[in-house]
Amino acid sequence: MLTGLRIENNLYTQIGIILLIALSAKNAILIVEVALELHVRDGKPLLESAVEAARARFRPILMTSFAFILGVLPLVLATGAGANARKSIGITVFSGMLASTCLAVLFVPTFFVVVQRFENWLAERQREEGRRRRGRKSRGVALIVAS
User: Fold this and answer.
1) Residue pLDDT, tens place only, 110-121
2) Which of 38, 47, 51, 104 is 20 to 30 A from 77 (CA-CA)?
3) Contacts of 146 (CB under 8 A, 6+ apart)
4) Alpha-carbon torsion, ordered 63, 69, 70, 74, to 10 deg
5) Structural domains for the chain
């Protein structure tokens, strides 16, 4: 990834990657929070709540992401003393934020649905197992009392 952008993996690049992780997580949290609220509080189906959350948060995510991307543009175009350091962090964050914004809007709702379905499946499985255990215990008590 970094060699394709013609930048070295130095401290500035690594700081930029950490910054990308934080901003990408923030965007994902915005989508998931709204989707979970729609699903749990309003009782909407899982897929519908994920799509509606992505639609509701699309504009705010794009606005903040592109404001950030345009804000680091001077770092990408830096010249003069210390330009290599500014370019390292600028190119990393600029290209990463473009990719992150495009991918997050598409994949976060998808991953939300997959993970939530798996969580629902696990909860249902645990409930069924709990019912089976309670059924065995109550039958055992009845046999002891009858003896």
Assistant:
1) 999 999 999 999
2) 104
3) none
4) 160
5) 11-108 (1.20.1640.10)
